[in-house]
Write a structure and sequence with these properties.
three-stranded antiparallel β-sheet; 84 residues; alpha+beta
Length: 84
């Protein structure tokens, strides 16, 4: 469910053709969505994903969850053999 490929597909859906999107565009309605945020951060801050997560100082809140704000960006990391 949270394999890198599935998270990358999810991010592609969130970006919907854009080069970047704010984290507020990531739906967080339940525990599964919240757990997915951990994998988005893990993969997006690493060097082997097709997207990047640029964290910011802000925080986002839903009625149940709070989590760091940031921006998701398209871009291959060097780990995939592509230029940044």
């Amino acid at each position: 469910m949270f394999a890198r490929g599935r998270i990358e597909e999810f991010i592609t859906t969130v970006l919907d053709g854009r080069s970047s999107a704010p984290m507020r565009d990531v739906p967080v309605k339940d525990d599964e969505d919240y757990v997915r945020l951990f994998f988005i951060a893990s993969y997006g801050l690493g060097d082997a994903s097709s997207f990047r997560l640029q964290p910011s100082d802000g925080r986002l809140h839903t009625p149940t969850y709070g989590y760091p704000d940031g921006t998701l960006e398209v871009g291959r990391h060097k780990g995939r053999g592509q230029a940044r």
